[in-house]
Design brief:
Layout lengths: L3 E6 L1 H9 L3 E2 L4 E2 L10 E5 L5 E7 L7 E5 L8 H14 L1 H5 L5 E6 L8 E6 L2 E6 L2 H4 L2 H11 L4 E6 L13 E4 L6 E5 L2 E5 L14 H11 L4 E5 L5 H8 L4 E6 L4 H11 L8 E4 L2 H10 L4 E6 L4 E3 L4 E3 H13 L2 E11 L6 H14 L4 E7 L18 E7 L2
Parallel strand pairs: 1-4, 9-10, 14-15, 14-17, 15-16, 17-20
Antiparallel strand pairs: 1-3, 2-6, 4-5, 5-6, 7-8, 8-9, 10-11, 12-13, 18-19, 20-22, 21-22
Helix pairs in contact: 2-5, 6-7, 10-11
Bound molecules: S-adenosyl-L-homocysteine.
InterPro entries: PUA, PUA-like_sf, PUA_sf, RlmI-like_PUA, SAM-dep_methyl-trfase, SAM-dependent_MTases_sf
GO molecular function: methyltransferase activity; RNA binding
Protein name: 23S rRNA (Cytosine1962-C5)-methyltransferase
């Protein structure tokens, strides 16, 4: 049986919870002496025991659970999940109907009303990511609900909990048709090879869709493009399809080489005409400086944290330095596409990093475009801090 627990929200958090803040933090509630099982249903009340909302208990690095409803009578059952998933699917109607895009996010956790649950669509296949044991305890109800709302060609899942942040290798197949990987999906007419059953990531980060399109449509033609932290080279593919003269993809992971070749190949791009370097980006900066290499467009999309044998890198601390290194190998009049998915700072702070780097390099700049999460990565109303993606297109002036 699922535990039902009444929890007092501390006075200073009551207003936020009433306003619709979806995350339950340890600091927000009074749980002295209580033990709760993952997946417990929490009845949130104020100091007068007046009902505020219903949450579930599930430990994640962000908090200890998520608010599911503010309607006292609403039960958390299959019907509830059907409603949430239907609403989310309805919001993505356009994407479902767009023929030249066949991969997108269907359910974005707290933005769609259930924190800790992510559902992505890959050409008929569904990939469900579970972020706590708590939300995973609703698995049967949620899979039943999903199959009631949409036609699931094949179902895959990723467990992203009790692993100290590490992905546990497992077979991610759940039910339905087994995919033949790589599966080729379309994004604004570009092809991307994905694998839903090969480790933590699928081969493409769906949140960068609009950025890849902008690069292809407006910045690539006739340009040399350097793609750092390139992973499977998704930005390089967009650049070549947009008419780039040549791309250079740099990633330290050995697997990035075959994966990038594959992305080029499925788009019928001659990968031998492109440069793919398996190398630490920080070493590459030195290498490029030594060989006096400069680029017209540089994509900078580092992980929030990176540790190699030589360095530890955190975007919150080191982004200005990264931009200064990048500036040294960017042509005047060129473009730097600076991106970060670090949720610990906002767009304003990110722009202050950009300003710092350019000021210290005595270089003027102009911001041409800004992007955050695309529409399918729904963010809770009034709480833009959940919009973690920040991408700025910067023109390097004199
Ligand atoms: N920009 C990519 C996603 C980047 S994911 C895209 O849009 O598809 C982060 C990548 O950075 C990973 O592939 C990882 O292997 C790589 N990486 C981490 N530290 C690195 C370093 N010091 N040098 C080069 N690559 C690094």
């Amino acid at each position: 049986m699922r535990q039902l627990v009444e929890i007092k929200v501390k006075p200073k958090s009551v207003k936020d919870m009433k306003n619709g803040y979806p995350l339950l933090t340890k600091e927000a509630i009074d749980t002295a002496g209580m033990t709760m099982a993952e997946g417990s249903i929490l009845r949130l009340v104020d100091s007068n025991r007046k009902y505020i909302g219903t949450a579930y208990y599930g430990l994640q690095n962000k908090g200890i659970g998520w608010v599911l409803t503010r309607k006292e009578q609403e039960k958390i059952d299959t019907k509830f999940f059907v409603k949430k998933i239907s609403e989310a699917v309805a919001k993505r109607k356009n994407l479902y109907e767009t023929e030249d895009t066949t991969a997108f996010r269907v359910f974005n956790g707290e933005g769609d009303g259930i924190g800790g649950l992510i559902i992505d669509f890959y050409d008929g296949f569904y990939m469900v990511s579970w972020y706590s044991e708590g939300i995973y305890s609703f698995r049967d109800d949620i899979y039943q609900a999903l199959s009631k709302v949409v036609t699931v060609r094949g179902l895959y899942e990723k467990l992203r909990f009790n692993t100290n942040g590490q992905y546990v290798e497992q077979d991610d197949y759940v039910s339905g048709e087994k995919g033949e990987f790589p599966l080729i999906v379309l994004e604004n007419g570009m092809k991307y090879a994905v694998d839903l059953n090969d480790g933590a990531m699928t081969g493409i980060f769906l949140d960068q869709r609009e950025v890849r399109k902008a690069l292809r449509d407006h910045y690539a033609k006739g340009k040399t493009v350097l793609n750092t932290f390139s992973y499977t080279g998704a930005f390089s593919v967009a650049a070549v399809l947009g008419g780039a003269i040549k791309t250079t993809s740099v990633d330290v992971a050995k697997r990035s080489l075959p994966k990038t070749i594959e992305q080029f190949a499925v788009n019928e791009i001659d990968y031998e005409a492109q440069d793919i370097k398996v190398m630490d980006v920080f070493d590459y900066f030195r290498y490029a400086a030594r060989h006096e290499l400069k680029f017209d467009v540089v994509v900078l999309d580092p992980p929030s944290f990176a540790r190699t044998k030589k360095i530890t890198f955190s975007t919150a601390k080191d982004y200005p330095k990264l931009l200064k290194d990048t500036l040294k190998i960017t042509n005047q009049g060129g473009i730097i596409i600076a991106s970060t998915n670090n949720a610990s700072f906002n767009m304003k702070k990110f722009k202050s990093f950009i300003d710092k780097a350019f000021t210290e390099s005595n270089t003027r700049y102009k911001i041409l475009e800004e992007h955050q999460l695309p529409e399918d990565f729904t963010v809770p109303h009034n709480y833009p801090e959940f919009n973690y993606l920040k991408v700025v297109f910067i023109k390097v002036m004199s």
